[in-house]
Each structure stands twice: as structure tokens, then as C-alpha cells.
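Posted in: Structural Biology > Protein-Ligand Complexes

Title: Requesting predicted complex, beta-D-mannopyranose in pocket

I'd be grateful if someone could produce the C-alpha cells for the following input. Sequence and ligand are given below.
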Amino acid sequence: MSIMLPELKSSTVIKRVNQGEPVLSSKDMPYEADCIFNAGVVKYKDKYVMAFRNDYDYNGKGGFRKCFIGLAFSNDGVKWDINKEPFLTSADIHDPDVTRVYDPRLTVIDDVCYLCFAVDTRHGVRGGIAVTKDLKTIEVLSLTAPDNRNMVLFPEKIGGNYVRLERPFPVYSRGGIDRFDTWISFSPDLRYWGDTKLLLAVEQVPFANDKIGPGAPPIKTKAGWLTLFHAVDIDRTRGKNGWEEKWQKRYCAGIMLLDLKDPTKIIGLYKEPLIAPETRYETEEGYRTNVIFPGGMILEDNGEVKIYYGASDTIECLATANVDELIALCLPC
Ligand code: BMA
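-- Reply #1 --
Done. Output follows.
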């Protein structure tokens, strides 16, 4: 049963860049595009790099026939040059079971760039991890068993292992509804994953009554790993929102702090949304309204944190905040 939640507001530490105008949208694309969103962003070799999702060829009934992951580059993290070719399509996985690749997240570990992405297959949703040496070609390192997605990698090994956050969807054992939580796993080589633990359960997040999942790859601060997540509430009285006949969910960004040495420990959790849907792009326009889906977070030398988020499953936006103010929101637990 869904519980109605009150109006939600973004924290006052959040500043939307360009008054919430998108930093990337279908208008900027050199190819057919309808919705450009849910991007991963890193700084790599003196450039900002963005991998984004392009859904296009609308079927008129709430879905898109086609989807791929595109790539863009920037000198300032705000204005982007788009690569003319798609970066990753379902055909690049060379597995006839794969139907769609989407929701990319980027992480640089030891000067190597990795891509996590969701993979729809005819036998369930899988989480992919790939490595790219030149941001042109990619090699898939591992695909999870279904159903799993929203995977993100930490930007360094901890205790000798790679670390990822992930969001399996255990429909059978969680009552057949979206009661999905965030988990953490470890790997010696990015292929074999284990020591899996529950990290953040949906019932620990006061502004979620549905599901949660990892957002951007965590950033390292003196106080801990600053970690974004998305949190969903559902309200059965919500009706038509955006292009869809019925869209009853709302996605907000939340933030927590994980222990530097033992990231299975949450040392701080902000009990309110960090970013809630507020601008007209986020609440009125677009394919699915009321969706804030964070996928990239960059800590600048001056303490500014750039937070990239998909808005309304339609455009990519950017907000900033000061790192110490973000840490203060999370503490005390
Ligand atoms: C999730 C994923 C995301 C999407 C969100 C809101 O389940 O499909 O890609 O942004 O729903 O529609």
C-alpha cells in the first residue's frame, strides 16, 4: 500500500546552474534524439566526459523504439560538444539476448575510464561493467545475473578490492512491489563480485515509500565517501504526468556519507531530499514528470560539487553545492 508523502523541496545548499535550463537536450544532438538524460560524468585527461542516454523514435504509446548511449566532451562541465557517433548500442554487446543499453555511469580508477550501464535482455535486466581505453571502443568486463541495475563503481580500490553499489530488484521476496534497496559488493578484478551486503534499505529513507537505488559514483572527502542515491515515492492519486497516460512516481536525489575505510558503514544520511523536482522542466514538461535521476558528481579543487541529473527522463541538468555543506547535511546520522 502506498503512503502519501508531503510536498518535497530541494535543500537550500543546492544551486541549479542556468536556472535549471538543461545542460544537454535533444536540441543539441547531431542525430535523431527525443530524450537525452540519466548521464554519467567524469573528469578524464583534462576534459569533462559525459555518457548519456538517448531514447528516440517515440511509439506514441508511452515508449521509444530505439535507445543508445552517446558521448560528449566539455572544457567547463557546462557547455558540451557531442560526438557524432553513438558510443554504445545494444549491438556492441554481441549477445543476441540484449535488447537495450542505457543509464550509463562513468568512473575513473587509476587513470582508466570505466562505464557501468543497464542492459535489458530477453531474460531480465543485467548490470554491465565495461572498460574503455580511448573513449571509442569498449570491452565488457562483466554482466550481472538478472535483475540488477544502477551500478556505480567507487573511484579507487578499498582494502585491495574494487567496490560497487548496485540495486537488485527482488520482486518475489519483497511482496511483488518495488521495495528495492541499495547493496554493496567487492571484486579483485571487476569481473568476479562477492562479499555482497545490504547498504541502505528503502525503509531508512523517509522520503521514499517505493524504492531506492545508487546515483552517481561516490566522491572521496575528508569526512567520508559522499554518495548520492535516488529515492522514489508513489502516490496512486497521481494521474497523467508528461507524455504518459499514467505516471504516479516521483524521483528525488538523496545523499549519504560512507566510511572511508569500510564503505559498508553509513556514517551520515540526510533525512530529506537533496534535490526534489521543482522547475517547470522537472514538474511540468517532458516525457515523465517529477523525475530527478542523479548519475554524475564531480568535486572541484575549490570545494564546488557538480551534480548532474536527468530531469523528467527528458533532459540533463546540472546543480552545484559546496562540499562542506553537503557533508554537514549528512551529519549527524
Ligand atoms: C527507472 C529507470 C530510469 C528512469 C526512471 C524513471 O526505473 O528506468 O532509467 O529514469 O525509472 O522513469
